[in-house]
Amino acid sequence: MSQPVAETRQSGRGVILVLCALLIWPVMLIASAAEQPTLSFAESSRIGPVLDVQINGVATTALLDTGATVALIDDQYFATTEAPNFLATEARILGLGGMRQYPMASLAHLSVGTSSWRDLRVAVNTNESFPVEHSILPISLFPTSIIDFEFNESRVHLYDGRPKRVRNAPKSTIRYTENQRLIFMPIKINGAKGLALLDTGAERSFVNHAYARRAKSIPDEYDEERMQGSDLSTKTAHLHTFRNFEVGDFEIPKSRIPVLRTDLFEELGYADTPMMVLGMDFLKHFRVQIDRRRKRITFVQPPEASGRQGIGQQSARISEYFDR
Question: How confident is residue 317, by pLDDT bands cut at 50, 70 and 90?
Fold first, then answer.
């Protein structure tokens, strides 16, 4: 799960705003990146778009995270160079484990498929007590206007133009807004309007207390869930029952979602505003097409999932997964 937030810190010449879900600020590329039409997900125990990558010549994996705005790389991948070229900036990143500081450095080389970057500004994890499960890559690394996650086929398509049409599949297109370069879209729960942060780095969705109150959720004080962040720290959340969860034209009549107390919401400016993080437990049931030029997200229900039952049948499946 990638639950984040960052602040600014002055160090020598530079200041950088970082959001990690580790969330972070857009990457400054001194590179050329060839268009990569399709990237297949690597085998991983993690639910989410994990990709095969090369970091300074070392084959490894990284998480493609819509909840990140800069790359986070472990310092072990700098061993093939003389030493990390640390910059005069420092990233302060808030995950489930609290606020942590990471230096910024220039990464000599990163490649994903046929795309490659040189001298890439990244945050570096240099403390063994703060292990991360995977390196983190933001979608802003790729220049294409469309980021098209086909989760049921374990791949992501990168291209320009308009989102590809999927015949005979229910879909819903939603306009989104950006806050600190993160994707927020309108949702409704029990008729109450709120915002959802689209986060492929979060394995589990969760709701803030302001939204739980507004949506009149029903808490189960005896049913808890241990949630793990991408920083491998854990928090305990109580499960709540929510009615009529709506994302565009898709609706789930009943679902059970964790309600979590975390500084993330306050750091983003939504401590008292109805908000949730929409993670992979929901997203994996759809093809999710992000149109960054038009600021629209299209949720497509795969034909094999919807069949002739339509949206209602898929809603039941999603609800059962929330109830895991």
Answer: low
Angle at 89 between CA 199 and CA 22, to 5 degrees: 15
204's CB contacts (< 8 A; 6+ apart) are: 1, 225, 227, 258, 279, 280, 281
Q: Which residues pair with 250 in a beta bridge?
A: 247
Beta bridge partners of 54: 59, 111
CA torsion through residues 179, 184, 185, 188, sign: negative
d(CA 288, CA 290): 6
**Ordered alpha helix ranges (H), 4-141:** none
What is the largest distance, in Å, between two alpha-carbon atoms of the chain?
Answer: 62
How far apart (Å, rounded) are the C-alpha atoms in residues 25 and 307? 41
Question: What is d(CA 86, CA 13) in angstroms, rounded to the nearest whole number?
Answer: 12
Q: Which of 196-205, 257-266, 306-315 has the weakest average pLDDT? A: 306-315
In whole angstroms, give the CA distance from residue 217 to residue 176: 25
Regarding pTM above 0.90, the answer is no
